[in-house]
Design a protein that fits this description.
By secondary structure, this protein is mainly alpha-helical. The chain contains six helices and two strands.
Length: 114
Amino acid sequence: MVYLLVNWIVSAMVIFSVAYVLPGAEVFDFTSALVVALVLGIINALLKPVLIILTLPITILTLGLFTFVLNALLILLVSNIVPGFSVDGFLAALIFGIALSIVNTFLNNFLPGK
């Protein structure tokens, strides 16, 4: 339970930091980043596996690169749901998703309690 809470806070910090550095993505405050992390986590847990199965032929055809497109579309969906988070377009969402994945993977390697 503590690991989930720490992971959620770290993800929110990463979202807040990446939105600060990346032009085209804005987070109003840290509370909005916490909500974005929660909504993105729920969408990634529930909707993303279904979308990956539905788009499996194109994912195989592109050697897995279509998952970046799915991530960008899910980030755009979250930006439409959460009021304090906005992404300007598809390219900004794609770059935001890639940066978020890289930084989150790097930081989660240092979290204790795995």
